[in-house]
Structures are given as structure tokens and as C-alpha cells.
Design goal:
CATH topology of the largest domain: Nuclear Transport Factor 2, Chain: A
Radius of gyration: 22 Å
CATH architecture of the largest domain: Roll
CATH class of the largest domain: Alpha Beta
Number of helices: 12
Order of helices and strands: HHEEEEHHEHHHEEHEEEEEHHEEHEEEEH
Strand content: 25-35%
Largest sheet: 7 strands, mixed
Structural class: alpha+beta
Shape: globular
């Protein structure tokens, strides 16, 4: 059988994987991966001494990775952003996150090397957002927007469709954009000073790296703001007594999903308020009580709650480690104004991860 991206079986893919991976991809890599493909089977892939071995069936591994067959096929074809898949629950990862981060080195396409899928960098979004302050849209900025926006993009409260959004992009005073743009492959969040106030812009990004939805959120009162502020203050205190738990319950849905990004053991998806609070407590314990959250500003609309916070911490077991980062807390809200999902988007993910890595 001659495999193509559409015709190959997973058994065929894994059997031929050792012959397809380039030796330079394996240099310095010593890890094992257990792929659990729903309704298809399990395969253990081990890399050591520049050699890759595959065995079918369950077994011990540094990383266990579970997903559906359609997601796996998109992943090896370079059509699925792995970070996005993990953060949206399409891929479940348990074990060594540092090893998982090197997965793309061995998951080549069925007909050769697949280019890893990935979102545009923060600098691309920053260029596009800065263009909003221009009196006229330059040709290169227009071309950038043409490539960045989905055809059916919606700018809530402004317009629908790529042509309409581009036409409205630089109308009015967009203010002075902050130097840092926060992006995690699923969302991009930027802040600006407009007149005498502050404004947040939220972009939703699809699997192809295209912007599908845009919200512009002015600072100020909103019916959910009080509950949001109370939940953030409870997290800042880190005590989680009865009053703090009541504050968290006013803002979070009981089955809230907490997406922990990054490439460390803390980068795990938590489901339910009990697990989320357990994570808060574990962070405090792992840092000897030094983990601190200082909320700098809050924004709320009917779809999102956004907090920009200053995170600091030390590690008793590693006196040389100190965390000092700015992070955006992005919450999706349901129709009742309660948080259903959370993403933490740091200004520098590598800097945050280095704190937790030994």
C-alpha cells in the first residue's frame, strides 16, 4: 500500500515512522510517548541514542497523549496547531511537558516532513493593531489584514466580513497601543490608552491562524465587574476561607475549565471549581507561600472578563528561581455572566516556564 495523507492507516503510519524521521530530529532527544488514539489503538514511541522505536499497545512512557483519530491526522499533516489542541481539550497530555513540547520533531507527515502548524507571532498582531491609529491604511497594512482576517470575521459592534472590517479598521482614534501584545494561539489580547481611559481588544484566532472575532472593551462599570473583582481579590489573598469561596462561586460556574498553558508539569487542564481552587492552593504551597497576584486592571463585557496581573513567586527548593511576569487572565462568560473557561496568557511564556523547570 502506498500511503497518502488521506489513505494511510494508523498502523501503517506508526510502522513506517522510524524510517521517515530524519536523524537530526532525534539528536539529543531521549523520551518516550504513549499515543492513545480513540477507537484506533495505542502505540508507544521511544527515542534514545538517535534511534526511534515503535511498539503497539500500552506501556510505561514519559508522556501519555490522548486524542481522536481526526485530530491526530491533522496534527501529523501540519494542519493542527498542537498548542491550541491541548488548550481546547482536543489533545490530553499527562506526564513530562518538556518532552511533550518536542513532539513535533518526531510526528512527521505520512509523505514526508510536515510543517508544524502555528499561529502568527505577537508582532504580527501588534502591527495590525497599531495600524488602527493611522489616518489612512497603508498598502502593507491592508495586505497584512487581508492575510490575517478570516473571510467571515465579525467585529462585534462594528461590522461583519473581511471587507467591512478592513474598511472600518482605522476610523476614529484608536489611542496609544501598549508595547506588549499577549497571545496564546487561541486568543490575542491588547491594551490601549484612549483619551482619558483604557481599552482592551480581544481577538479569537482559528486553527489556521485567522482572526474570526474581535471585541473592543472599554474600561468601566459592567454588571459582572463586581463579581469578577471579588473573585480576583479572593485569588490575591490566597486564603480560600468561606468568604473567599463564596466570592469565587459568585463568579465561576461549578464546572469551569481552567486551561493551564506552558510546557511544565503545571500545564494541565483543570475541570471544576474544586480542582481550580486546589491548583491555587498547590501553587501557594509549591512556592512556600510566596506566590502573589497583583491585579493591575480589569475589563468586562458580555462575553469576556479580562484581568491584567503582576505575578511574583519564589521557590524554597531553588533559591536561584524567581518569577516576575505580567499575565493576562482571560475568562469566557456564559449568558448569565459566569466564567466557564479560563486561559492565562503571560507576556513571556518561556520566562514563566523557566521558573517551574528544574
Amino acid at each position: 500500500m502506498t500511503s497518502t495523507a488521506q489513505e494511510y492507516t494508523l498502523q501503517d503510519y506508526f510502522e513506517k515512522l522510524p524510517a521517515r524521521v530524519r536523524s537530526e530530529n532525534l539528536a539529543g532527544l531521549t523520551s518516550s510517548y504513549l499515543f492513545d488514539i480513540k477507537d484506533a489503538g495505542m502505540w508507544r514511541v521511544a527515542v534514545a541514542d538517535g534511534k526511534l522505536d515503535v511498539a503497539q499497545g500500552d506501556g510505561d512512557a514519559d508522556v501519555r497523549i490522548a486524542m481522536s483519530e481526526p485530530v491526530f491526522r491533522k496534527l501529523v499533516a501540519g494542519e493542527q496547531n498542537p498548542m491550541r489542541a491541548v488548550m481546547t481539550g482536543k489533545i490530553k497530555v499527562k506526564g513530562d511537558r518538556a518532552a511533550a513540547a518536542k513532539l513535533q520533531k518526531i510526528l512527521v507527515g505520512p509523505d514526508g516532513e510536515a510543517a508544524p502548524a502555528g499561529p502568527p507571532p505577537a508582532s504580527t498582531f501588534q502591527q495590525a493593531l497599531r495600524a488602527r491609529s493611522s489616518s489612512t491604511l497603508a498598502a502593507d497594512d491592508r495586505a497584512l489584514l487581508e492575510s490575517l482576517l478570516a473571510d467571515d470575521v465579525v467585529w462585534h459592534g462594528t461590522g461583519e466580513g473581511k471587507a467591512a472590517v478592513i474598511d472600518a479598521w482605522n476610523r476614529g482614534d484608536a489611542g496609544a497601543l501598549d508595547d506588549t501584545v499577549y497571545t496564546d494561539g487561541i486568543h490575542t489580547v491588547a491594551f490601549a490608552t484612549v483619551g482619558g481611559g483604557r481599552e482592551a481588544t480581544v481577538l479569537h484566532v482559528d486553527e489556521n491562524g485567522h482572526v474570526t472575532e474581535i471585541w473592543t472593551i472599554a474600561g468601566g462599570d459592567h454588571p459582572v465587574l463586581t463579581a469578577f473583582r471579588g473573585a480576583q481579590e479572593a485569588r490575591m489573598r490566597g486564603e480560600f476561607g468561606p468568604d473567599d469561596m463564596a466570592a469565587l462561586e459568585r463568579f465561576f460556574e461549578p464546572d469551569v475549565t481552567w486551561h493551564m498553558g506552558g510546557r511544565t508539569g503545571w500545564a494541565q487542564e483543570k475541570e471544576g471549581l474544586e480542582q481550580v481552587v486546589g491548583t491555587f492552593k498547590a501553587l501557594k504551597q509549591a512556592t512556600g507561600g510566596t506566590f502573589a497576584v497583583e491585579v493591575l486592571e480589569l475589563f468586562v463585557d458580555d462575553a469576556h472578563a479580562i484581568g491584567r496581573s503582576h505575578l511574583t513567586a519564589d521557590r524554597p527548593d531553588r533559591p536561584d528561581k524567581h518569577m516576575d511576569v505580567i499575565e493576562v487572565s482571560l475568562f469566557h462568560l456564559d449568558a448569565g455572566g459566569k466564567a466557564t473557561e479560563f486561559w492565562g496568557i503571560p507576556e513571556d511564556e518561556a520566562k514563566r516556564d523557566s521558573f517551574w523547570m528544574d
